[in-house]
Amino acid sequence: MKQWWSHNWRRFTVIGIPSLWFILFLFLPFLVVLKISLAEPIIASPPFTDLVYISKQTIHIVLSYANYLFIFTHSGFFVALWESIKIALITTILCAVVGYPMTYAIANSRPSIRPVLFMLVILPYWTSFLLRAYAWVTILQNNGLINHALMWLHITDQPIRMIYTNFSVYVGLLYGYLPYFILPLYASLLKLDRAYLEAASDLGCKPWKSFIKITLPLTWPGVMAGCLLVFIPAIGEVVIPQVLGGLNTMMIGNIVWEEFFVANNWCIAAALAVVMLIVLLLPIIWLQRIQRKAEAKS
Amino acid sequence: MMHEPTKIEPTKNEPIIEIKNVSKYFDDVTAVDQVSLTIHQGEFFSLLGGSGSGKTTLLRMLAGFELPDQGKIIIDGVDMTTMEPFHRPINMMFQSYALFPHMSVAANVAFGLKQEKLSKIEIKQRTDAALEMVQMADLGKRKPHQLSGGQRQRVALARCLAKRPKVVLLDEPLSALDKKLREQMQFELVDIQEKLGITFVMVTHDQAEAMTMSTRIAVMNNGWLEQIGTPSEIYEFPVNRFAANFIGSTNMFEAKVLENEADNVRLRSSEARCDFHIDHAIQASEKQTLWLAIRPEKMFIELEMPKDYDEKHPVNYLKGKVEDIAYLGGLSTYHVRLPSKKLVKATDFNIERKSNHPTWGDEVYLSWEPQNLMVLTS
Questions:
Q1: Distance from A142 to chain B by nearest Cα, in Å?
Q2: CA spacing 20 to 30 A to A74: which of A178, A228, B56, B283?
Q3: ipTM of the complex
Q4: Could you tell me if residue B243 is inside a domain?
Q5: Domain closes at, from B237, B269, B289
Q6: Do B60 and B169 have their domain in common?
Q7: Interface contact B143-A297, CB threshold 8 A
Q8: What 3-state DSSP class applies to B270?
Q9: Per CB distance under 8 Å, which residues of B are interface residues toward A?
Q10: What range does the domain containing B359 cover?
């Protein structure tokens, strides 16, 4: 044993620390959530039953699927889930459409100003997300920056309603998630060997066509990684719809929030979280497959 | 490695590339400095130089990836100085090969043809023919990462040739291959070039490679063109010290002109501690300092003192001690230390299995035919 340890401690530590992290902060909390989702709600503190208890010298294990049944029999959850997926998808597309040209411009800028431009993308994220969401309220609201500017320029004489609509939610989500798209794409654009583009040009390919035929396919893994990094957290977004959204924007994250803090029904909230996790697992597995393929190629 | 007899001299002596007084600056560095040269139709032309010599920049200006700050580049009679690379009738084989990793071998070769909007049948035929030429016809479906270095190189060449360019540019084409494959590919490249009669322009830092493959070589140094000529011209008649040193190995002596008459030229070198006697006039004034160079294989090495050796004022003889011997089987290179501490190399063929060769510490006499002495004024 002692010999084994002295031989393997390095490997054990290297694998052990992240594993411990994973168990402590991901796996155990998930087990707790899973446990709550299988309990029944009661009026107590904590507001759910124990799964395992001993009474009359017998061990009772009670697992309830009532919460899941409740979710699957109430269309409201499906609507919210569908709404979340839709909003997350549109956000992802917006991030890709805005993010690709931005990243392309940064990656192709002069090496001396490249880190500066990159910092400009990252820098705002050093302040609180909530604060920045509220900053958007002051920009988008009826007597906010944009409406003031529009009226001052006499483009409109009445404020245009932007705040508390789907529009403001998308603006907020696009703003909030853009860096998650930019980061992996930036890496793959920088990695792209310029010789490929020179070769394409040399073989008679015009620049815009080289972009379609060479740059885009070769940075596709970066685009996909960016899309999933946006899509996955965007589905569960809580802050943006709450701060910038109207009454009709109901995302699954907000429902979980309300079940927890308003209805005090932890069990339904936990069951919702588990269902969402399973739904999100699919794109994550897909992402890993894409990345593995890309690695195998290079 | 010389295979002069198979080398066809350019059939047409028409210029295909004319580089006229071209300069290129990067910030305050002069990469290419007023280079003018003409490359003829059907030549295998090499740009030879060390790193920073400007050879790659010059090649990239031919391809159109860099624009000259000065001068003109005329290709096949058309001024293409500022023409976009995708309009030039030139194709380049990149040092890294730059095969598109997401496309199959056949798709890589067809890529250039698709840009010309040819019919599908013609694209297929020309792709197959190009792959056939480099013996890669069976591997058209493979992806570049499934190929060996040599195979990648062949595909890169096929991709250039399929376009039927007027000129093929090769940027250090063989540097990524191991020695044996490199030598094989040298001959294959030359064979293909001769078969097609297309002009090849190659950049290389390897003088042996340039000598083996090229019909003509341009030696570059610090952005300057030092010399242009056939391999043997550059080896036997270098125009200056740089060319003499860069190509092959050479023994160089600084010397002063003592006498310079039509049939009697005498120079004295304190480095060599001997006088040099040449039987033809040279272009130099008296007392001028110049340099005398002799190739090691043109040095005779003897153990016995020659009869006409003058101990006090040796003429056309060097005396020294053998310090090192590089025995290469077929030949040996002797490193001889002169009394002035200068090291001189002499190569001798080992014609006999057993003979009285000099050995370490031997006192030897070195001599040469006067016509093999290269006189360099710069």
A1: 50
A2: A228
A3: 0.82
A4: no
A5: B237
A6: yes
A7: yes
A8: coil
A9: 63-65, 84-88, 90-92, 94, 96, 98-102, 111-112, 115-116, 143, 145, 159, 163
A10: 249-376
Distance, C-alpha B239 to centroid of its chain: 14
Hey, is the C-beta of A204 within 8 angstroms of any chain B C-beta?
yes
What CATH number did the domain enclosing A203 receive?
1.10.3720.10
Q: What are the tokens at A26?
A: 């991901």
Give the pLDDT of residue B199. 94
The structure's pTM equals 0.81
Please check whether residue A235 lies inside any domain of the structure. Answer: yes
Confidence of residue A298 (pLDDT cuts 50, 70, 90): low
Q: Which residues of B220-239 are buried (b: 16+ CB within 10 A; e: fewer)?
A: bbebbbbbbbbbeebbeebb
Please answer yes or no on whether A195 and B98 come within 8 Å at the CB atom: yes
* Cα of A196 to nearest chain B Cα, Å: 5
Q: How far is B97 from chain A (nearest CA, A)?
A: 8
Chain B residue with minimal CA distance to A293? B102
- Using CB atoms, which residue from B64, B96, B111 is nearest to A195? B96
CATH of the domain at B133: 3.40.50.300
- Domain with A81, as residue range(s), is 72-297
Is residue B18 exposed (0-12), middle (13-18) or buried (19+ Cβ within 10 Å)?
middle
| Cα gap B162→B111, rounded to integer Å | 10
**What is the domain count for chain A?**
1
Number of inter-chain CB pairs under 8 A, A vs B: 65
* pLDDT at residue B5, as a whole number: 46
User: Do A297 and B101 lie within an 8 Å CB cutoff?
Assistant: yes
Range from A273-277, B161-165, B307-311 carrying the lowest mean pLDDT: B307-311
Whether B111 and A200 lie within 8 Å, measured CB to CB: yes
Q: A218: nearest CA in chain B?
A: B102
Cross-chain residue pair A198–B100, CB shorter than 8 Å: no
* pLDDT confidence tier of residue B373, bands split at 50, 70 and 90: confident
Dihedral of CA B171/B176/B178/B184: which sign? negative
- The answer to the question of residue B296 being in a domain is yes
Nearest CA in chain A to B161: A203
As a whole number of angstroms, the distance between CA A197 and CA A203 comes to 10
Domain count, chain B: 2
**Residue A50 forms part of a structural domain:** no
The span from the CA of B279 to the CA of A228, in Å, is 83
B143-197 per-position pLDDT tens digit: 999 999 889 999 999 999 999 999 999 999 988 888 888 888 899 999 999 999 9
Give the pLDDT of residue A297. 63
CA separation for the pair A231, A91 (Å, rounded): 7
CB B81 within 8 A of CB B73: yes
For chain A positions 158-197, those within 8 Å of chain B (CB to CB) are: 193, 195-196
Q: Which residue has the higher pLDDT, B281 or B268?
A: B268
Asked if A193 lies within 8 A of B98 by C-beta distance, the reply is yes
Q: Are residues B94 and A195, on separate chains, in Cβ contact within 8 Å?
A: yes
Give yes or no: residues B224 and B253 share one domain: no
CA dihedral B268, B273, B275, B278 (to 10 degrees): -90
Please indicate whether, in this complex, the C-beta atoms of B143 and A214 are within 8 angstroms of each other. no
